[in-house]
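Researcher: Going back to the complex we discussed earlier. I've cleaned up the inputs and rechecked each line, so this should be the final set. Can you rerun the prediction on the complete assembly and write out the structure?
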Amino acid sequence: MSLLNTIIPSLSRADTNGEADHRPVRRPRFEIEETDTAYGVTVLLPGVSKDGLEITDEGGELRVAGKRTTKLPEGLTALHRESSDSDFELVLAHDDAVDAGKIQAELKDGVLHLSLAKAESAKPRKISVS
Amino acid sequence: MRYIQYTPNTRGVVPGTFFGARYPRADIENQIDWLFGTALTGFAGSARGGQFPVDLYEDKDNTYVRAELPGVSREAIGVEIVDGSLSIQASRKEKSGEGESTVSFNRLVSIPDEVQADKVSATYENGILTVTLPRKEEAKPTKVTVSVN
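Model: Rerun complete. Updated structure for the full complex:
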């Protein structure tokens, strides 16, 4: 494992996400689409409800944090596990090419759709030659 | 728009040539993480069809099968018990460019023999399917009274 840690820095790096919350986070699956006027981001967040989702946009970075809520009766014994209980975190840098006031988000069945309207300065412009 | 994994120390990964001399160490690390991150997520991920993660739990009355199936519509989920196994099928519609494609998932999970197949129930919430499999009650001793003439 130590060799793998040296090859892949993230495996050995300490969690640096704030002081209060030291729970491990993982990156969700996501996809970004681009049109002339907007970016569309699809993030897979299985097990995350509306209450456990936090979306912030600050300093040119969009951060999506999803806490997994497990709704299983207590006193269960796990016989076999393949999923992880760690929370999700995704940080996307957009360098203010996105209009932060026009960000729309929709969460349905564990899939988050984000619609990020491009800022006027980032839209393609046609320059007419005089 | 770019993905960055670590908020501190970086202002995002500068797109461009890999391992260019002008990048500080942190950026090279990010590039490597990005490379391997893609591969590692693909290994455990469930986005591209095929298999999906399944958990198996039990308590004294039931066995529970929990499957991560984000973005699947309820109508597209099929749960069946076939020959002592639980079969889970699902499909998700994905927009790809202008068209729409369907990604199918299916998985067969072995379940204990003592399950009451007719009382199996399933719920789907926040992209997670939970199948509850009630266990058969132990064969109760029956009392038979025989009258002697």
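Model: Worth noting: Helices of chain A lie at 2-7, 9-12.
Researcher: Good, that matches what I expected from the previous run.
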